[in-house]
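During the reporting period the student researcher (J.K.) took over the structure-prediction task from the postdoctoral fellow and processed the backlog of single-chain submissions. One of the processed entries is reproduced below for the supervisory committee.
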Amino acid sequence: MFIHVREPEEIARLKKKLGSDCQTLLVRRKGVSDKIFENPSDDRVEAYEYNVVIENDGDIEGLRDYVSNLLKSYDLR
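J.K. obtained the following structure tokens:
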């Protein structure tokens, strides 16, 4: 299950509620992650220590390969 949440306190609340199997993931891209959006939800998205951070700085095939390998690394039985 994927849940899209940007606010650090909400991420922490969900992770606590869902338990230790819950993993957090941030996908960021240079030039976009550095912007100030004047929206607290967007501006504070990186104020959390995620389990995995994906630097989306390549092509779509590279991203697909990275995500595929990441998913394979989890025991999804």
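The committee noted the following: The first strand starts at residue 25 and ends at 28.
J.K. will present the remaining backlog at the next meeting.
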